Structure prediction request, 158 residues.
Amino acid sequence: MTAISEQSSSNLAGLVGLYRRIIKLPEHIPFSLVQLAARVAVAHVFWQSAQSKLASWPVTLQLFANEYNLPFIDPSIAAPLATTAELTGSVLVFFGLFSRLAALMLLGVVSVIQIFVYPENWAEHLLWASLLLLILTRGAGVFSLDQVAERTLSAPRK
Prediction:
């Protein structure tokens, strides 16, 4: 009986060890890849949104005037501001240039959409905000123009 319990506890310890090693595998994924994926994903969302606004500007103006109902700002001003923010923010985030500033700007866009336009879509907005908060708090990562600029500006001068 003792040999059987020792063998089963040995098997259990082996399985637990294997489980722990498997669980720790994702820790080997470079964080810069996570940052890059976040940047590409959120940039795509806002790039597509801006492109749809530009595809039919008269419809965009009608949406801002009739459906979006933003307080305190005229639709003829809100539409170009939103489109410019989405275009600029998506390009900057994608390339990782001034990425924290761009993420902050796009977080503002997400906040306006959440509060005034489509509050019922909070789960989707939370997903966008989470990716943008990652970029805002941790930066664009190694694969970014921010990193190139950092290396260039901090290089010792001869």
Notes: The chain is about 80% helix and 0% strand. The two ends are 76 Å apart (CA to CA). The chain has a mean pLDDT of 92. The chain has one domain: 30-154.
